[in-house]
Amino acid sequence: MEYKDLEIWFLTGAQLLYGGDAVVAVDAHSNEMIKGLNASGKLPLKIVYKGTVNSSVEVTKAFAEANNDDKCAGVITWMHTFSPAKMWIHGLKEYKKPLLHLHTQYNEQIPWSEIDMDFMNLNQSAHGDREFGHIVSRMRKPRKVVVGYWKDPATQDKIATWMRVCAAWTDAQALRIIRFGDNMNNVAVTDGDKVEAEIRLGYHVDNAPIATLVPYMDAVTEKEIDDLITEYERIYDFAADCKKGAKKHPYVRDAAAQEIGLRRFLEDKKAKAFTTSFDELEGMKQLMGLASQRLMAEGYGFGAEGDWKTAALVRTMWVMGHGLPGGQSFLEDYTLNFASDNSSILQAHMLEINPEIAADKPRIEVHFLGIGDAKTCARLVFQAHPGEGIAATIVDMGNRFRMIVNQVDVIEPQPLPKLPVACALWKPQPDFEVGAGAWILAGGTHHSSFSYSLTVEHIEDYAEIAGMELLIIDKDTTVRNFKQDIRNNEMYYLLNKALS
Ligand code: MN
């Protein structure tokens, strides 16, 4: 997935009422604005001006082209003059990609002493954008409305956030997820309706027997393993018993072969996300811990124990955060630490945490894992650095998917000399009691996709594009209001389904 292969199209709304001079001016102003936005250095995707639309025919044609062009990840609309919104109906009806309505104005301030009716014929976004907004609301089309002067960095930041989500949405429409094994037996929250997920969210989930992966690992040459071990030695520390020549080094070599084989397998299948299961190891010497950590750092989505929804979300959030500092990971609510105002949740997993979130150089260790068939596994051990982040999850509520996002503060953990796993320690916002309580009331999973790079706004934009329920847990959350939100949503989604 390359941001440089994607574009955001820009349509300026107008009408022919004001004469040819006005149309020429609208075009010139639009070009200047898009040039300025692209030159701001703030926007991750290039904006391409697709002209001024003055009629229903032009609008419909522009949106049809946007639908059919693989490069187009979304459309921004802006009404420079008044654009009677009936002309947008047919185009909007057909349009299937993300939409951003930019409520801005070519002129920053009113030219008090100069302003005349010619100026007014041209600079009409104050009412033109309201007319356009009406028809989008009337048609119940999802969209992001960004209000602000186009040169203002805060306005550009909001567009940039949405663009990242557009890139991730585009990626998800062609995303293939490979599951090695089914969901962990009897687990409810990580399961769900894969057909509905493909209809609503775009991605496709396939099964692959682990036996089809084993030959890929067996085919890895000693030379390839040597080279990868050299890379490990360059970027990680090694526990004494894992170094070259030491007793457990063969397990590290085996993990390196798993990494190379797994990457090749996923490339062959054109898959960008995968799940594993500690009950599904037929023909392998260890659960793919180190390989999962390394591939997550490259942008592969990962979910443990068959958790395909989290694997998809980890991939999607990686694409959203592509190139931003911070990093992200699959995580699991591991164990609780009650300490009054400092109560926190240790986030970890047996093996599979993305080393991108490490505070210090990760260390390769090999230990026996007494669960399922996992056996003796190599893994990177580290602790995540302090900082603010978000944890998100998607659950299947039976009649809809629900996104839950929690703002969290990662804090410094104590050393864990006898628990050789990668981990993060966080306090959910607004505090442990409300944060954890709201998450449980929402039915959120024990697995999440965590990111230092993204904000709640990215998840809001995603849920809007997907037409998905969103529950936000942050500093403003109270359990009383949160429960009422859940009840209201229940009614809203039931009615919405009944009426659609
Ligand atoms: Mn788990």
Q: What is the element layout, followed by pairings?
A:
Layout: E1 7-13, H1 20-39, E2 46-53, H2 56-68, E3 72-79, H3 89-94, E4 99-103, H4 117-122, H5 125-138, E5 144-147, H6 153-173, E6 176-179, H7 194-201, E7 204-207, H8 210-218, H9 222-235, E8 237-238, H10 249-268, E9 273-275, H11 289-297, E10 301-303, H12 308-320, E11 328-337, E12 344-348, E13 363-369, E14 375-381, E15 387-396, E16 401-411, E17 423-428, H13 432-441, E18 447-451, H14 456-466, E19 469-473, H15 479-499
Parallel strand pairs: 1-2, 1-3, 3-4, 4-5, 6-7, 6-9, 8-13, 9-10, 16-19
Antiparallel strand pairs: 11-12, 11-18, 12-17, 13-14, 15-16, 15-18, 16-17
The structure holds manganese (II) ion.
Manganese (II) ion is lined by residues 304-305, 332, 349, 447.
Name the descriptors.
alpha/beta, Rossmann fold, 6-stranded antiparallel barrel, 5-stranded parallel sheet, 15 helices, 19 strands
Explain what you see.
The protein is α/β, with parallel strands linked by helices and 500 residues long. The protein has two domains: 3-172, Rossmann fold; 176-499, no CATH class. Helices cover 39% and strands 23% of the residues. It has 15 helices and 19 strands. The strands form four sheets. The protein has a six-stranded antiparallel beta barrel with strand order 11-12-17-16-15-18. A five-stranded parallel sheet has the order 2-1-3-4-5, sandwiched between helices. Helix 6 crosses helix 14 (456-466), helix 8 (210-218) packs across helix 10 (249-268) and helix 9 packs across helix 10. The longest helix is centred in the N-terminal third of the chain and has 21 residues, at 153-173. The model has no long low-confidence stretch (mean pLDDT 96). The structure holds manganese (II) ion. The site of manganese (II) ion has 5 residues, from loops.
